[in-house]
Amino acid sequence: MANLFLISDHHFGHRPIIDFESRPFASAEEMTETMIARWNAAVGKDDHVFHLGDFSFLNKEKTSAIVERLNGRKTLIMGNHDRGRSRSWWLDAGFGEVSEHPIVYGGFFFLSHEPMYINKHMPYVNVHGHIHGQKYEGTQYINVCVEHWDYTPVSFEEIKRMVVPNEEQ
């Protein structure tokens, strides 16, 4: 049975992000190789990954080479740095599905790049990226930026445990 994973904000090829977010890499190349290795250590060939945006700053050829090396079926929810390129550009780069808008998953989880406003009285959870090392309080917002997850996709099972920690899944 395939597993589901979520992650965001790899910023492949973006050297300045190392300094902006105090990432523990000496170069963009080291960052790329480490993040590919960590992705493939967690994600199997038949698993599904929602990437919640800001995937790559590289050209299509280099981006496609990275996508091809990553395990799993990949869906991109476009982030602010992805939107300068068309949906078809990302499909051509190797993503199986690409959405320009947030996706509702399981009728309960809003998957988006930027955090969305969720009324505290509503029973929804926003799984998002965009804010890198920052984090919102409470269980209605789960930041899946690479900085929070040791540069490794997080399983949907782990996300569900964060929302309902004491219930049987």
TrEMBL record:
InterPro entries: Metallo-depent_PP-like (IPR029052). SUPFAM superfamilies: Metallo-dependent phosphatases (SSF56300). It comes from the Bacteria. This is Phosphoesterase.
